[in-house]
Amino acid sequence: MLRDRGELTAGDIATAFPKISRPAVSRHLRVLRESGLVSARQEGRKWIYRLEPRALANLYRGWLESFASVWEASLQRLKARVEADQSERHTRRQRKRPSRNPHPRE
């Protein structure tokens, strides 16, 4: 949301999550702000939030990147499974399909 829109007020962010109370959204935003993943500035009574790309890049390089090999292996297994399922479905369809002309004319 912040990535796509740049900056949003806390109220706009809370509105996007109707099942979460505004105080809970505010607590989440505070945690993100304290961790440096978002920054906030006050304009009157409103708080305006935006992502901090450097902090996200550091998070990726420092932690998420370590999972890349696990994700890659999982995605390869998923791909193989999907391809096997597709092949199996194709084979079943071929078996069920009647020939077009069971009694060809000569």
In short:
The chain has 106 residues and is of the alpha+beta class. It has helices at 2-5, 10-15, 22-35, 53-62, 68-96; strands spanning 7-9, 38-43, 46-51.
What would you say this structure looks like, in words?
This protein has 106 residues and is α+β, with helices and mostly antiparallel strands. It folds into two domains: 2-52, Arc Repressor Mutant, subunit A (Orthogonal Bundle); 63-96. 59% of the residues lie in helices and 14% in strands. It contains five helices and three strands, in the order αβααββαα. A three-stranded antiparallel β-sheet has the order 1-3-2. The longest helix has 29 residues, at 68-96. The model has no long low-confidence stretch (mean pLDDT 87).
Order of helices and strands: HEHHEEHH
Q: Provide the structure class.
A: alpha+beta
From the 3D coordinates, which CATH architecture of the largest domain would you assign?
Orthogonal Bundle
Strand order of the largest sheet: 1-3-2
Q: Under CATH, the topology of the largest domain is which? A: Arc Repressor Mutant, subunit A
Shape: elongated
Features:
106 residues, alpha+beta, Arc Repressor Mutant, subunit A, three-stranded antiparallel β-sheet, 5 helices, 3 strands, elongated
